[in-house]
Amino acid sequence: GRRVAALENGRVTLYTLRGKTRAEFAAPGAEALDASDGLGAAWGKHDAYLFTPSGKVRAHVTADDPIVRVSCGAGVWAVATLSDGGACAVTLYDAYANQIDRIANEDFADGDVFVDAGLSKSRLWVLCMNTSGAQTDSRIYFFDAAKSALLARIDAPGQTIAAVAADENCVFAIGTKQIICYNHSGIRQWQRAWEGMSLSARGQSGGS
Length: 208
Fold this sequence. Notes:
By secondary structure, the protein is mainly beta. The chain is 0% helix and 57% strand. Strands 4-5-6-7 form a 4-stranded antiparallel β-sheet, with no helix packed on it. It has a 4-stranded antiparallel β-sheet with strand order 8-9-10-11, with no helix packed on it. It has a 4-stranded antiparallel β-sheet with strand order 12-13-14-15, with no helix packed on it. The protein is globular and about 50 Å long.
């Protein structure tokens, strides 16, 4: 059944939807959570823990550079790190922490600065800001995590993509001028212009 995860003082507690405690385990250094339908992750500055809905810790990854994002997909999870010098890397692991792929600075365009990343099933998106031109533009990369392949690179000139949110069917880019819906291969499905509104969103991967 579905679980609700809570993180406090380096410990993760899983509850049923009725509030009954199902499992509890230590995740030293963890400060945030992410989840998909079949996997959960707790992570902090240098450590990430992958766990199952039953509360079994399946994998523990330690990173040399600070971890800035962890996202869970379908049998795969992504750990994004950012060095003090600004070098970004997104490492993809299977459900047992075997490395599948590593996407690093050389996979992005010159001037791209990492903002966020997330998984939806086996598709990875990475949001960057490009600072090489006269103005700062947003850019989204779409990767097939299972095949280690770049599917698309989407530029958003003239606006800032403030956040990306994903479900099992679509990836939504929430910009300062438009909301744009893409499929998981990076093909635009629709867009809506909007002005004068305020919206807060966080990139997600699948269901939480």
